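Re-run with default settings, no changes from the original entry. Doing this only to confirm the output is reproducible before filing.
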Amino acid sequence: MRRKELTPREKEVYELLQQGLTTKEIATKLKITQQRVQVVARNAKYRLMDQAKDLDNSVDS
């Protein structure tokens, strides 16, 4: 089973994306590659989708 909570890095990247930073700007700020930013953002998206599904299931129960 996959961990549902965002990791600290996923939270960090997600917050920077919400602030409107580009993947290039985030990569520079966090001293990681743009590809790593994309992977972390994708993983965060999947975790958030899982959390939303769990919430929907608990409301329907």
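The chain has three helices and no strands. The two ends are 21 Å apart (CA to CA).
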